[in-house]
Design goal:
alpha/beta, 189 residues, 2-enoyl-CoA Hydratase, Chain A, domain 1
Length: 189
């Protein structure tokens, strides 16, 4: 459910995404961003503090944000982990608080039920394809070396804000600056 209220295109919007990424939260974020862009808002900052979540809706959000006809900035606060890194990388300008931590890990999938070996192989193929897509995004949007991207496939890899800056995950370390008179805050939590 959206918490936008009436849209004021003269204001800068700060959208705080503070949830796991699942189908429901992705729909809310997608709806809010589309409504803001359709409402004529040109200055949108997406503030991300998320442990990540499901990869498919995260990839869909990444592609949507990259295609919207508005400059959408992203800002990391607290934890930006797993699939939430895709939201971070979707921004035209990417910043983070000095204390922000970024986490990467291999793709995961819950397997419940009875499966034959062909079905398990199919699941592994899908997971490898997701990892390949992630690798392409990391190579396209960052300076993360191939050896580091490969580490993401084999275990958990944490970065502090300085390492995220060095590798181009973010472009600047700075605190979030919200103008007092020209800002509208939206919370997705």
């Amino acid at each position: 459910m959206s918490s936008l209220g009436p849209i004021d295109k003269t204001k800068s919007y700060f959208v705080f995404f503070q949830r796991n990424i699942d189908i429901g939260s992705a729909k809310v974020l997608r709806g809010d961003l589309v409504a803001l862009v359709e409402g004529g808002v040109t200055d949108i900052t997406l503030i991300i503090n998320s442990p990540g979540g499901t990869l498919a809706p995260s990839l869909q959000l990444y592609n949507l944000i990259r295609s919207l006809p508005a400059k959408i900035k992203t800002h990391g606060q607290g934890i930006v982990a797993s699939a939430a890194n895709l939201l971070m990388l979707a921004g035209d300008e990417r910043t983070a608080d000095a204390g922000t931590r970024f986490f990467f890990h291999p793709s995961q999938s819950a397997i419940i039920g009875t499966f034959n070996s062909a079905q398990i192989d199919d699941q592994l193929l899908v997971m490898r394809e997701y990892e390949n897509m992630l690798g392409e995004i990391y190579r396209d949007r960052t300076k993360i070396p191939a050896t580091e991207i490969d580490r993401f496939r084999h275990g958990s890899v944490p970065y502090d804000a300085s390492k995220a800056l060095e590798y181009g995950l973010i472009q600047k370390i700075k605190g979030l600056e919200i103008p007092s008179q020209k800002a509208k805050l939206v919370f997705i939590d």
